[in-house]
Amino acid sequence: MSVELLGKSAEELREYVASLGERPFRAAQLYHALYAERRFEFAAMTNLPAALRQRLASVEGGRITPPRIVRRFPSADGSIRYLFSIGGENEKPAQIEAVFMPREGRQTICISTQAGCAVDCHFCLTAQLGLIRNLTAGEIVGQVLVALEENREQLAPQTNVVLMGQGEPLLNYDATMAAVRILLDPKGVALAPRHVTLSTSGIVPGIERLGKEKIRPSLAISLNASSDEQRNSLMPINRKYPLDVLLDACQKYPLRPREYFTFEYVLLGGVNDTPEDARRVVRLIAHIRAKVNLIPWNPGNLPYRAPAAESIEEFQRILVEKGVPTFVRYSRGQDVFAACGQLALMETPSPLVALQ
Ligand code: SF4
């Protein structure tokens, strides 16, 4: 039976190549072709000898299964949302999503780490799917490779990757980190650690584990509330890891020089967007080197409303005045359902589709 190669580390490819009786430098060539050159067909790996390419492509050889594009949803703002189908020989089929967002001088790719999610944040449509399954390292890194390859002609010099699509990355820790290591490897996809951001709902053991990694991405925490009561009602995970436990883990996290935490704060009109909320946020993160991204809610299918423009401005002003770097981020691709998880629900046959 053939072996899936996408997602394998340099070391795993060395073992694989050794099992074929080939010399170790062939593994480095294969790794380069897969991740630096984004070759998904053995025939296109022209850095390998023809005989080895043929052997790899044989039934007994290897296989490369990148996520398959089911649909593309281009947005008026230039973003493209991809609905991918994953799974195959050994993995349960599922659909996930990623978004490619071009900007001046760079592109940002938002990817998924799980199909569905078990965390149950109340403002998130993915939560309504429940957890379908964890993605493999190959399915995670494959989303980046396919999005880059698809947009090959218009790529800017810098690529940012955000792990903010479907799923809680720290609840699929090993596969997520295996993918991140390939993304950050100068011989792999070669992205800079500050350009890869892992966003978590606040899984404290995962944050502690990440702090011990030699190679790791930047960390963003989805805060979204200014008190335990409020956070419990928006993000039930807060009952397991309440704010004092979460923020204590952030304070102990070994930030590198010039490294900042990012706190993501979705502003829900009339829920968590008052000046008092802003002042409480300032107090909560006072001892943490952090910046805050305010994300005004996209009105959609859930019972929340967008914050008023004045509330957004006032919230930002209060944080900035207290010395917290604060930015307002409007989520892109709004006309193609770019809010977390919405596309998956549109395409997944389930009673929840009625919400659309
Ligand atoms: S916001 Fe993220 S962690 Fe929360 S339910 Fe949605 S996908 Fe899961």
Number of E-state strands:
14
> How are the strands ordered across the major sheet?
3-4-5-6-9-10-11-12-13-14
Return residue spans where pLDDT drops below 50 for at least 5 consecutive residues.
348-356
The H-and-E topology, N to C, reads as EHHHEEEEEEEHEHEHEHHHEHEHEH
Contiguous helical run count = 12
Percent of residues in beta strands? 15-25%
Tell me about the largest β-sheet.
Answer: 10 strands, mixed
Structural class, judged by helices and strands? alpha/beta
* Cα-based radius of gyration, to the nearest Å: 21 Å
Compounds present? Answer: iron/sulfur cluster
Q: What is the helix content? A: 25-40%
- Note the overall shape: elongated
Straight-line N-to-C gap: 42 Å
Question: What does the average pLDDT come to?
Answer: 91
Q: Which short descriptors sum up this protein?
A:
ten-stranded mixed sheet, 356 residues, single chain, binds iron/sulfur cluster, two-stranded parallel ribbon, alpha/beta, 14 strands, 21% strand
Describe the structure in your own words:
By secondary structure, the protein is an alpha/beta fold. The chain is 32% helix and 21% strand. It contains twelve helices and 14 strands. The protein has a ten-stranded mixed sheet. Helix 1 crosses helix 2, helix 4 crosses helix 5 and helix 10 packs parallel to helix 11. The longest helix is centred in the middle third of the chain and has 14 residues. It starts with a strand and ends in a 9-residue tail after the last helix. 45% of the residues are buried. The C terminus is likely disordered. The structure holds iron/sulfur cluster. The site of iron/sulfur cluster has 13 residues, from loops.
